[in-house]
């Protein structure tokens, strides 16, 4: 398998499990409906761990354009590979969202809340304040990336590292996710948001494109700053 396919498959799995738990918690007549934020945070953490287990040895499991660009800016990843990685991540995120739509096929019509439908696919602010929302995404991504790189610098029993990274994401979600839904990944938000726009979901309302730039710009800024900070302070 090529690194391109590794990133595509890994990001698809990340979204399939991550948006899948959002669908289970949010959509009407799901057996997991209203099970809460802790379930969502745990679901996303396990989603990341699973994706890393599956494709880490193939592509390094970036699964996030902000991480790929941050590593390239820090001189830890070749720039010539950045476009193919980012393309794979966005394609994988879109396909993962489409599979979530298929898995919950009868639940879209059973759900009248258009916000719940959009929230299954993409992030949104608890309180709409563009500057504050942007800062939330920058800070959450900064902390996530510094901690991921620090975890990677430690020696663990074989196979444990992805679980530690997954639990890191659980912690970030619980501590920082309540403001914007903690996208921290342009592909994670934009790919599924496009899926929301094009898939038949019954009455679905707006895809909220006016907000869509925040989960793109925030993670790119926070991820780049976090990666550069880590290598400047801790070294390679």
Automatic annotation (TrEMBL):
<feature type="transmembrane region" description="Helical">
    <location>
        <begin position="131"/>
        <end position="151"/>
    </location>
</feature>
<keyword id="KW-0812">Transmembrane</keyword>
<keyword id="KW-1133">Transmembrane helix</keyword>
<protein>
    <submittedName>
        <fullName>Glycerol transporter</fullName>
    </submittedName>
</protein>
<dbReference type="Pfam" id="PF00230">
    <property type="entry name" value="MIP"/>
</dbReference>
<dbReference type="InterPro" id="IPR000425">
    <property type="entry name" value="MIP"/>
</dbReference>
<keyword id="KW-0813">Transport</keyword>
<dbReference type="GO" id="GO:0005886">
    <property type="term" value="C:plasma membrane"/>
</dbReference>
<dbReference type="InterPro" id="IPR022357">
    <property type="entry name" value="MIP_CS"/>
</dbReference>
<dbReference type="InterPro" id="IPR023271">
    <property type="entry name" value="Aquaporin-like"/>
</dbReference>
<feature type="transmembrane region" description="Helical">
    <location>
        <begin position="211"/>
        <end position="233"/>
    </location>
</feature>
<dbReference type="GO" id="GO:0015254">
    <property type="term" value="F:glycerol channel activity"/>
</dbReference>
<comment type="similarity">
    <text>Belongs to the MIP/aquaporin (TC 1.A.8) family.</text>
</comment>
<dbReference type="InterPro" id="IPR050363">
    <property type="entry name" value="MIP/Aquaporin"/>
</dbReference>
<feature type="transmembrane region" description="Helical">
    <location>
        <begin position="85"/>
        <end position="102"/>
    </location>
</feature>
<feature type="transmembrane region" description="Helical">
    <location>
        <begin position="163"/>
        <end position="184"/>
    </location>
</feature>
<feature type="transmembrane region" description="Helical">
    <location>
        <begin position="34"/>
        <end position="55"/>
    </location>
</feature>
<keyword id="KW-0472">Membrane</keyword>
């Amino acid at each position: 398998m090529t690194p391109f396919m590794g990133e595509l498959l890994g990001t698809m799995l990340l979204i399939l499990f991550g948006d899948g738990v959002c669908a289970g918690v949010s959509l009407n007549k799901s057996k997991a409906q209203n099970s809460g934020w802790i379930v969502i945070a745990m679901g996303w953490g396990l989603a990341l761990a699973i994706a890393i287990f599956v494709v880490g040895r193939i592509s390094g499991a970036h699964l996030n354009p902000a991480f790929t660009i941050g590593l390239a800016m820090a001189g830890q990843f070749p720039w010539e590979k950045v476009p193919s990685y980012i393309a794979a991540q966005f394609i994988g995120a879109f396909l993962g969202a489409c599979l979530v739509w298929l898995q919950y096929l009868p639940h879209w019509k059973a759900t009248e809340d258009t916000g719940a439908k959009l929230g299954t696919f993409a992030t949104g602010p608890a309180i709409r304040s563009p500057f504050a929302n942007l800062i939330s995404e920058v800070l959450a991504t900064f902390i996530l990336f510094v901690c991921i790189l620090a975890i990677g610098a430690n020696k663990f029993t074989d196979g444990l590292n992805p679980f530690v990274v997954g639990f890191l994401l659980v912690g970030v979600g619980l501590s920082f996710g309540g403001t914007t839904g903690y996208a921290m990944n342009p592909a994670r938000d934009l790919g599924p948001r496009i899926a929301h726009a094009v898939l038949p979901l019954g009455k679905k309302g707006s895809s909220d494109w006016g907000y869509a730039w925040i989960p793109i710009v925030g993670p790119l800024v926070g991820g780049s700053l976090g990666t550069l900070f880590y290598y400047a302070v801790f070294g390679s």
